[in-house]
Amino acid sequence: MKTVDFEHLPLEAGDTVLDLGCGEGRHVISAYVEADVHSVGVDLSLDDLKITRDRFASFAEPDNEAKSFGLSSASALQLPFADNTFDKVICSEVLEHIPDYHSALREIERVLKPGGLFCASVPRRWPEKICWALSDGYYNVPGGHLRIFRSDELRGEIEFLGFTHYYRHWAHALHVPFWWLKCLFWQSQDTNWLVKQYHRLLVWDLMKNPALTRILEKSMNPVMGKSVVMYFRKEAAS
Questions:
Q1: Interatomic CA distance for residues 175 and 202, integer angstroms
Q2: pTM assigned to the model
Q3: Total domains in the fold of the chain
Q4: Closest Cα partner for 224 from 171, 165, 160?
Q5: Do 60 and 29 contact (CB within 8 A), yes or no?
Q6: Both ends of the chain: CA-CA distance in Å?
Q7: How far is 11 from 87, CA to CA, in rounded Å?
Q8: Per-residue pLDDT tens digits for 38-53
């Protein structure tokens, strides 16, 4: 399930791509599959990195020397890379978890090359506020969501660092009711019939990718997409 649309973050042969907060690998693996790039995933969680490593095995192209794949456990506040290392940086559904997200943004600016592209996604404000209202457990857990962003304010903070915003879209509208149900039945979500049935629908949609749900989600995303996805270019004089 990709949040980033590579039509708006075009990967070119030879690019070095960072997925910061890669989690279980959806974007760092997708970037590797998408083009002949050097794809690097960084996350604090060793367990998530192990899952990513295992998932990547099915996509590896060991005979293709034009691309590579790497994983590293590191803090977003102190990345183990030199200045101007990456051509593209992805930070998807991560900033809401980081106490000092401003420092993480400064690190992204530091490691991204001038002219490089950056994609940031965070939960959309109004669906997220409903999740918070329905259940304290949704956000009040270790590693949970620390804040609800106003996308225009986050965009301004990123632009202040020397980035130019060039595109925005929303994603995963079909997942919004699922999370509302999980929050509503937080204590029994693992056994609740409604939650389980909606989860089956999402798995079916992911595996089958039918035209009906593609069209439905595309039409719903501008209204209730769970994630807001913003794309930026780092200016040479940042």
A1: 8
A2: 0.95
A3: 1
A4: 171
A5: no
A6: 33
A7: 9
A8: 999 999 999 999 999 9
